[in-house]
């Protein structure tokens, strides 16, 4: 796993290639930046570093808002960066005082003095520092003055769409468009969680379900509906179908995340699971009785099994 190092614990190394950003989701656009860092670090025999922030800067800059929903937790970001081969993820605790740093103070006092840098990779539209006044030109100017190289990475597109974390959030949260999200992420969207007690409605009708409590309260939950998913339990991936919603047939009110795992018959309470969302197959709807619901669930299951036969799960490096 990429080493997670908080700013106060970082060891300064002038032979460092780095980039800076929130990297929420570690999507296709981020990967171009990261791969550029890795390539340049390999050529120089340098340390590769991703500098990121926790919490998300928008939570501090806009304190009155509900808070931004996350595509990836800090732990997930670290795992994704590790899979790419990054040496260190340096985490800067983002608070009000830090948000007041100018872009020049950030580059001089944090990047140059505390972390060390020989090459700074930056996205074409990256803005940073107080009031987002820092730009590519700021980095170029300070690079010439202090003695590091600046490299700019251009905009990344999938088809005719620009890849961005906000576009992915919209696809997942508002549209339930998991295929579009996956094309931007270059992997299935994942949700880590723990199995908690439910009311056993699914078991009573022949479709036992595991109720999932997300690991992080700020993770994005896809739009209500029924989804084809892969569920990782104990290092093994099982196909399944997940319902996100209020179960209107049973007069439910609270939104729940329930997954029926195919060909699986084990007690799961308290277990940690990872859900990979493959596709949204239909809206959640109310049925005229349990028999009609069962008939629809059987059709959903057949459709989802066929779909999952054509798309295997993403297999990341196994974690300890």
Notes on the structure:
Catalyzes the phosphorylation of riboflavin to FMN followed by the adenylation of FMN to FAD. Residues 184-309 form the Riboflavin kinase domain. With 320 residues, the protein is an alpha/beta fold. The chain has 2 domains: 3-155, Rossmann fold; 179-310, Elongation Factor Tu (Ef-tu), domain 3, CATH 2.40.30. It is built from 10 helices and 14 strands. The protein has helices at 28-44, 57-61, 74-84, 96-99, 103-115, 136-146, 165-175, 178-185, 201-204, 290-310, and strands at residues 3-6, 16-20, 47-54, 88-93, 119-123, 149-153, 157-158, 161-162, 189-196, 210-214, 225-233, 236-245, 256-261, 272-282. The chain has a 6-stranded parallel sheet, sandwiched between helices. Strands 9-10-13-12-11-14 form a 6-stranded antiparallel barrel. Strand 11 and strand 12 form a beta hairpin. Helix 5 packs across helix 6 (136-146) and helix 7 (165-175) runs antiparallel to helix 8 (178-185). The radius of gyration is 22 Å and the shape is elongated. The N and C termini lie close together (10 Å).
Quick recap:
InterPro entries: Cyt_trans-like, FAD_synthase, Riboflavin_kinase, Riboflavin_kinase_bac, Riboflavin_kinase_bac/euk, Riboflavin_kinase_dom_sf, Rossmann-like_a/b/a_fold. This is Riboflavin biosynthesis protein. The protein is of the alpha/beta class.
């Amino acid at each position: 796993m990429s080493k997670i190092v908080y700013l106060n614990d970082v060891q300064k190394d002038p032979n460092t290639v780095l980039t800076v950003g929130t990297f929420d989701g570690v999507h296709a656009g981020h990967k171009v930046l990261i791969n550029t860092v890795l390539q340049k670090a390999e050529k120089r025999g340098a340390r590769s570093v991703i500098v990121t922030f926790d919490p998300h800067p928008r939570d501090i800059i806009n304190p009155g808002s509900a808070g931004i929903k996350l595509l990836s937790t800090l732990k997930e970001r670290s795992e994704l960066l590790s899979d790419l081969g990054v040496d260190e993820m340096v985490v800067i605790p983002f608070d009000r005082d830090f948000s007041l740093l100018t872009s020049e103070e950030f580059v001089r006092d944090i990047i140059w003095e505390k972390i060390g840098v020989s090459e700074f990779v930056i996205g074409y539209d990256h803005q940073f520092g107080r009031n987002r006044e820092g730009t590519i030109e700021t980095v170029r100017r300070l690079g010439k003055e202090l003695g590091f190289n600046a490299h700019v990475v251009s905009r990344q597109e999938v088809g005719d769409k620009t890849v961005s974390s906000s576009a992915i959030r919209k696809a997942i949260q508002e549209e339930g468009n998991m295929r579009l999200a996956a094309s931007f992420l270059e992997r299935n969207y994942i949700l880590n969680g723990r199995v908690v007690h439910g009311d056993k409605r699914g078991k009573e009708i022949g479709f036992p379900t595991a109720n999932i409590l997300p690991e992080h309260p700020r993770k994005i939950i896809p739009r209500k509906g029924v989804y084809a998913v892969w569920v990782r339990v104990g290092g093994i991936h099982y196909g399944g179908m997940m319902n996100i919603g209020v179960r209107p047939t049973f007069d439910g009110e609270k939104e729940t995340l329930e997954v029926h795992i195919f060909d699986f018959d084990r007690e799961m309470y308290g277990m940690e699971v990872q859900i990979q969302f493959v596709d949204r197959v239909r809206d959640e709807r109310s049925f005229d009785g349990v028999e009609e619901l069962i008939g629809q669930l059987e059709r959903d299951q057949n459709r989802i099994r066929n779909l999952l036969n054509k798309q295997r799960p993403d297999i990341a490096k196994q974690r300890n």
